[in-house]
Amino acid sequence: MFKKYQRKTAYVEAAQFTDETKDRVYNSLTGNVAADWENGKPILKVKTIHGDIAIVRLGDWIIKEPRAGCYYPCKADIFEKTYKLAD
After folding, report:
1. What's the domain range around 20?
2. Helix or strand (DSSP H, E) at 22
3. What are the residues whose beta carbons fall under 8 Å from the beta carbon of 70, sequence distance 6 or more?
4. What angle do CA 11, 82, 17 make, to 5 degrees?
5. Looking at the domain assignment, is residue 22 inside a domain?
6. Is residue 2 part of a domain?
7. Residue 8 falls within a domain, yes or no?
8. pTM here?
9. Which residues pair with 38 in a beta bridge?
10. What 3-state DSSP class applies to 26?
């Protein structure tokens, strides 16, 4: 009855938000994005495709949504298990 399925190949554009890349990542974002601080560490607040504001913390990946100016954060361990660099 049950069959095995695998996730279809999908391509995303993403960048990791780190201490070294934080300025370049912030400057490359468009739309409703704000830089802020949380417990003395930089964070980004990005608008998701659902209209919510999501927090991006150091180490997280930011994935561009199909709709311009919308993004979503993904924890590094989940990103590394889910995506690989496209050829």
Report:
1. 15-82
2. helix 22-28
3. 31, 46, 47, 48, 49, 64
4. 80
5. yes
6. no
7. no
8. 0.83
9. 41
10. helix
